[in-house]
Amino acid sequence: MIKCVKCGQVDNIMKAGYVRGKQRYLCKTCNYYFTHAEKDLSVLTAMKRKRHQTTIIDIAKSLGVSNSTVSRALHGHADISPETRQAVLDKALQLDYQPNQLAYNLVKSKTNTIGMIVPEFHNPFFPNVIIGAHEVLTNAGYNLTIMQSNESYQVEISNTKAMLANRIDGLLISLTQETNNFDHLSVFEKRGIPLVLFNRVCEQINVPKVVVNDFEASFLAVEHLILNGYERIAHLGGPLNLLVSQERLRGYRAAMEKHGKAIEDHMIIQGMLTQQKARIYGQYLLDLANRPDAIFAVNDSAAIEIMLMAKEKGISIPDELGVVGFSDNPESAYIGPGLTTVRQPTYEIGRTTADWILQLVDDEDVILPEKRVLNTELIVRGSSQRCGN
């Protein structure tokens, strides 16, 4: 039974051809054409009515006062009497008035929103940084908008454009593995929008940066392997366009040179460290005729892939192969025999970046250090401790 969506009648309904592949009907009672795709007009009217959001104009009309009186009352102006202000507040509550905070903030040229762009969420490093930053920002009355670049330079550019379009007050960003050009970040400086880089930073832009002591941490990690009797230590590093990769390679080289260990270039691999690439690079190192007896990896994900591959090949860890990672991901403590790694102060990184961006937003003349270098901690577990060492 077909019911007219206009008058509700079920009699005098006849088919009237097809419109865009849908059966069309004619109600001869009210002479109205319709299809099944149409909604009942009464429902549409109700939905439209429901979508209407109460405005200052609605409150003013209900009380018989001016729009400006309502606006001043809502914002607590001293020239509004307590009685009038209370009447406005009561009517606003009755009509379920929700202030347009975005419009109000744009008038003030401030949105109380900080943007954050991270390369990925798979690694616990970035979620922990976000938690630290979020705590500081929310306590200060700011919102945090988070976007993921997915290790893509083009997505990173799109993210920064979206942040600009949403008129953020400041931006926190950690660069992708692909980022070699920084013009999209220079736009923030030109527009007077504060910018703080963290973890993966670049020297080409003169803005505050929050990093860890990558050189020192890597030096101590490799020295730990040497002191545990390992001789031929390979390094599985990240892309050399990233400063963090450069610093960890520099720490590796310094430790090897200090202890008189040969640095073999074919056992130093730098590149994009996806899980698939880590397995390819690990396969190469473990299949060498004179394979390394230890590997220092730029992150825990790569180190864990090395350990899994070594087990598949029957290579004993730590007796035949020592492994050290970087980051102290949660799974590092549970994979047998436990991954030795460098613990980073992720929560403190988030809090520091957030504190700095707030200082820059609140006072454009504030002078911050060019860089804050936070300390790390070497967490020694079974993957690097040979018996007798």
3D structure, described in words:
The chain has 389 residues and is an alpha/beta fold. Helices cover 40% and strands 17% of the residues. The protein has helices at 41-51, 56-63, 67-74, 82-94, 101-107, 125-139, 153-165, 183-190, 214-227, 243-258, 275-286, 300-312, 346-362, and strands at residues 13-19, 22-27, 32-35, 113-118, 143-148, 170-173, 195-198, 209-212, 233-237, 268-270, 294-297, 322-324, 341-343, 371-374, 377-379. It has a 6-stranded parallel beta sheet with strand order 5-4-6-7-8-14, sandwiched between helices. The chain has a 4-stranded parallel beta sheet with strand order 10-9-11-12, with helices on both faces. α10 links the parallel β9 and β10. The longest helix has 17 residues, at 346-362.
List keywords for this structure.
389 residues; alpha/beta; 6-stranded parallel beta sheet; 4-stranded parallel beta sheet; 40% helix; 17% strand; extended
- Largest sheet geometry: 6 strands, parallel
Percent in strands: 15-25%
The percentage helix is: 25-40%
Stretches where pLDDT is under 50 for at least 5 consecutive residues are: 38-50
Mean pLDDT: 89
Overall 3D shape: extended
The H/E string reads EEEHHHHHEHEHEHEEHEHEHEHEEHEE
Distance between the termini: 87 Å
Radius of gyration: 31 Å
Strand line-up across the major sheet: 5-4-6-7-8-14
Number of helices: 13
Instruction: Give me the count of strands.
Output: 15
Protein name: Substrate-binding domain-containing protein
GO molecular function: DNA-binding transcription factor activity; transcription cis-regulatory region binding
Keywords: DNA-binding, Transcription, Transcription regulation
Pfam families: LacI, Peripla_BP_1
